[in-house]
Amino acid sequence: KQEVTQIPAALSVPEGENLVLNCSFTDSAIYNLQWFRQDPGKGLTSLLLIQSSQREQTSGRLNASLDKSSGRSTLYIAASQPGDSATYLCAVTGAGSYQLTFGKGTKLSVIP
Amino acid sequence: GAGVSQSPSNKVTEKGKDVELRCDPISGHTALYWYRQRLGQGLEFLIYFQGNSAPDKSGLPSDRFSAERTGESVSTLTIQRTQQEDSAVYLCASSFKASSGGTNEQFFGPGTRLTVL
C-alpha cells in the first residue's frame, strides 16, 4: 500500500527566505506526482504536476523535483512571501490506478 | 472557464439522517473523484468514475456510502444513517481521462463541510 510522508509538518520562515518542502513515497511505481496548496476553509489548488518520466517542473517561484527511484520529491519556494502561507500537500497517482494518495501536508507560515 | 463546483458548502445534520452532496465537474472532464478529509488527517480516496465504466468504489468506508454520476457530468455522494465519525470535508475533483495521454492532473472543488451532531 502506497504511503506518502511529508516533512516537516509545520514550518515558519521570515519573508524573503528560500525554502524546501519534502515529500517521500514508499512505492516508486507512480504515474505522476502533484503538489497542491490548501488555504484554510478552502479546496485544493494544483501547483505543479510532474509525470513519472520527468525530473522537475517550474512555475514562477516554485520548482518541484522528482527522484522516482528513491521515492522523493521536493518543492522549492524562492523568495517566500506572506501570501505563500498555506498548507502544502504532496500526492501521487499509482501506476495502473487514478486516485491520488496524499501526505498529511506541511503547514507553512511566512512571517512579514 | 468554470472550475469544479460543490454544494452545499456546509451541511449540519443529526446523527442517523441521510445526506446528499453534489459535485459539478469541469466541462469536458470525463474522470471524477470523491475524497474525504477528516480533521487532522490526510485526504482519503473514496470513489472514482470514468465515463461509462464501472466506478472504482474501493475507498468507500462502509455500505452507508454510495455515489452516482449522470453520464459525464454531475455526481452525488450519499451518506445514509450518518454517524459522528462521518464529519469531514468532502472534496470532489475532476480530470481528463489519463489513458488518453493526458496528465491526469486533478482539479478540486471547494469542498462540502459536513458536521454530524
Looking at this protein, list some descriptive labels.
heterodimer, A: 112 residues, mainly beta, B: 117 residues, 6-stranded mixed beta sheet, 4-stranded antiparallel beta sheet, 10 strands, 0% helix
The helical percent of chain B reads under 10%
| Sheet with most strands of chain B | 6 strands, mixed
Counting DSSP H or I runs of 4 or more residues, the number of helices of chain B is 0
Tell me the fraction of residues in β-strands of chain A, as a range: over 45%
Computed CA radius of gyration of chain B, to the nearest angstrom: 14 Å
- Give the largest interface: A-B, 25 and 27 residues
Query: Which consecutive residue ranges of chain B, at least 5 long each, have pLDDT under 50?
Result: none
Q: Structural class of the helix and strand makeup of chain A? A: mainly beta
Find the count of extended strands of chain B (DSSP E, 2+ residues): 10
Task: Give the amount of beta strand of chain B, in percent.
Answer: over 45%
Give the termini distance of chain B in whole angstroms: 37 Å
Query: Termini distance of chain A?
Result: 41 Å
Total number of helical segments of chain A?
A: 0
H/E element sequence of chain B: EEEEEEEEEE
Q: How helix-rich are the residues of chain A, as a percent range?
A: under 10%
